[in-house]
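A.,

Following up on our hallway conversation. Structure tokens first:
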């Protein structure tokens, strides 16, 4: 019996090597660890990463961490046990560092996917979108919609600020990009912030507008609290919302308030990720804009990066991405970062961008 089991294991390993097109030994080539499923885009990312990896002949698995870093660490350790040669990790927080170190000690390639793994010097590669530009798009949308260039301090516009998860380094880039546009208007009095008013992610007040784990219910509760307190006696003209999940929760809270219970009375609300519900909301004139980050391209770029590194390239060229070797500092080192370009989506271009690109079909909006 023992001999049969050993023979079976040997055959399974051989089959794995054939499936990987001779690219390496072990039961698993690429382990893909995504942070959660409650944000729609991560489900799409994980599915696309797996699809591309398998199309390229790699054995791959994808897991979702349910916003629990302990759970994700167990999933990554399982990948390591299975002999993974590369890990693509969209982490939850710095608690991932222990398994990143473990992977490095095993000689496993680690690619930080869309979220920088901070506090670690045990990996060299990061792939994401230009997240500062994402924030700039959000700030520019508010600037344009409120015509802030022509507003003065005698009759200011009112805004409240939300940010993403305090454990997600991207939240800093999104906010700083937006405030690079909006802060000058605040400083000259044309735009008045209702509630906490950090002007950058370095401001101590940033933690007061951050949204733990990007949870919709946290953003909704905070918006409801603002409407009952700091925003009670003003009419909000805009809400800086960092992503679509939070934007939709904020709009839900606003719509329950008599002051904002019609589409025309809603403030300008920003977003990102181009979730189906938000694109529909933009088409319906509710959410003002979103930022499309084509995760099909990001996933393809990440697997191509893994493939090139597995082939021994040190600084690969990735189609559709520019290499940044100066900006993304983990606090321990600056990592090689591959940046893709985001796309601004509004009521004017949503159909062209989202349906025209094939990301959604026309029937999704019927």
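Then the amino acids I'd put at each of the 366 positions:
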């Amino acid at each position: 019996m023992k001999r049969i089991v050993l023979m079976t294991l040997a055959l399974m390993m051989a089959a794995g090597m054939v499936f990987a097109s001779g690219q390496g030994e072990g039961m698993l080539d690429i382990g893909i660890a995504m942070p959660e499923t409650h944000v729609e885009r991560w489900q799409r990312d994980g599915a696309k990463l797996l699809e591309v990896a398998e199309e390229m002949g790699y054995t791959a698995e994808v897991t979702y961490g349910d916003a629990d870093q302990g759970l994700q660490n167990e999933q990554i350790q399982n990948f390591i046990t299975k002999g993974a040669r590369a890990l693509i990790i969209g982490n939850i927080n710095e608690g991932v560092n222990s398994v990143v170190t473990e992977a490095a000690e095993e000689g496993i390639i680690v690619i930080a996917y869309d979220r920088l793994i901070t506090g670690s010097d045990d990996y060299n590669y990061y792939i994401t979108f230009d997240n500062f530009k994402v924030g700039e798009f959000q700030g520019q949308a508010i600037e344009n919609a409120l015509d802030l260039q022509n507003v003065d301090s005698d009759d200011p516009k009112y805004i409240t600020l939300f940010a993403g998860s305090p454990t997600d380094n991207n939240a800093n880039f999104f906010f700083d990009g937006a405030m690079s546009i909006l802060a000058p208007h605040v400083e000259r009095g044309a735009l008045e912030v209702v509630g906490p008013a950090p002007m950058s992610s370095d401001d101590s007040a940033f933690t007061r507008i951050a949204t733990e784990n990007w949870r919709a219910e946290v953003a909704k509760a905070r918006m409801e609290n603002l409407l009952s307190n700091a925003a009670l006696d003003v009419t909000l003209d805009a809400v800086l919302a960092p992503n679509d999940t939070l934007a939709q929760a904020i709009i839900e809270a606003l719509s329950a308030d008599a002051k904002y219970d019609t589409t025309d009375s809603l403030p300008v609300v920003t977003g990102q990720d181009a979730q189906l519900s938000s694109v529909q909301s933009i088409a319906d004139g509710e959410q003002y804009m979103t930022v499309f980050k084509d995760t099909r391209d990001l996933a393809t770029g990440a697997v191509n990066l893994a493939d090139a590194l597995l082939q021994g390239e040190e600084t690969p060229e990735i189609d559709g991405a520019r290499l940044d070797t100066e900006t993304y500092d983990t606090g321990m080192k600056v990592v090689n970062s591959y940046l893709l370009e985001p796309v601004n989506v509004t009521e004017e271009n949503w159909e062209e961008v989202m349906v025209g690109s094939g990301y959604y079909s026309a029937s999704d909006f019927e």
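The CA atoms of residues 166 and 207 lie 7 Å apart. Curious whether your intuition agrees with the design.

B.
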